[in-house]
Amino acid sequence: MGMVEGKVALITGAGQAKGQGAAAARALAREGATVILTDKPGVDGASVAKDIGKDATFLYLDATSEQSWTDVVSTVQARFGRIDVLFNNAGMWLMKGLLETALDEYQSVILVNQTSVFLGMKAVAGIMKAQGRGSIINNCSTSGLIGRGQPFAYAASKWAIRGMTRAAAAELAPFNVRVNSICPGIIQSPMLGNPSEERLQAMAASLPGGRLGQPDETAAVVLFLASDASSYVSGADIPVDAARTA
Ligand SMILES: NC(=O)c1ccc[n+]([C@@H]2O[C@H](COP(=O)([O-])OP(=O)(O)OC[C@H]3O[C@@H](n4cnc5c(N)ncnc54)[C@H](O)[C@@H]3O)[C@@H](O)[C@H]2O)c1
Fold this sequence. Notes:
The chain is 42% helix and 15% strand. The chain is α/β, with parallel strands linked by helices.
């Protein structure tokens, strides 16, 4: 019996094979879940789902669009009859400080990183409430735990995720719906771009453990939060950063 046997899990930003969304999908499917990988139009994750196997499906979902959420959630409901797990993972990076950030850039980061999490939680919360069970996991960041050295809009969006996570956790607790966030440190995923080997080594050397995290290492925490092993964990924000923010 797998850790999430029989559960139906929806994951945003899961279309890139080397990203955290795809890693979470692989971990959940390996432990018995049916997984629906999604990503924005233009990022085709069908082959990622195909590699996972028959219990994985790919759908387009622009996480910033309420209509897109309505469409995908109703498709998943019609096809699988329930949604037990939502991993709000979609996000974007903008390496700019306060003085360099234009209003439209700020608003884009807030829309993709923060508004998408609001829309996703809202889209599934009613279904989970009616089911009397559910687990929502939001991908935050260590940029949501500290301010020093963090890009401005990205940090603002990630701090907001922790607030939304706690408010939603308290609101949904009476219905056995849990809401948590993970706060990864520097994870070697497509979000890093294509850094040189030298740059990668410098990033690793700046961390207490001397190495970057891997998508599988955040996926392991997502799996725990999705499973009933975490049945009394809600409203938490869990650093997955090998002591970066310790
Ligand atoms: N890589 C890191 O160091 C790191 C650290 C902490 C937190 N995070 C967070 O982890 C999450 C996953 O990032 P990743 O590291 O796997 O990088 P990634 O770039 O591979 O994943 C981000 C995914 O979000 C998708 N996306 C962007 N806009 C979208 C939209 N409007 N609708 C749907 N999908 C959209 C992208 O297409 C991409 O697949 C992000 O929220 C990111 O902020 C990353």
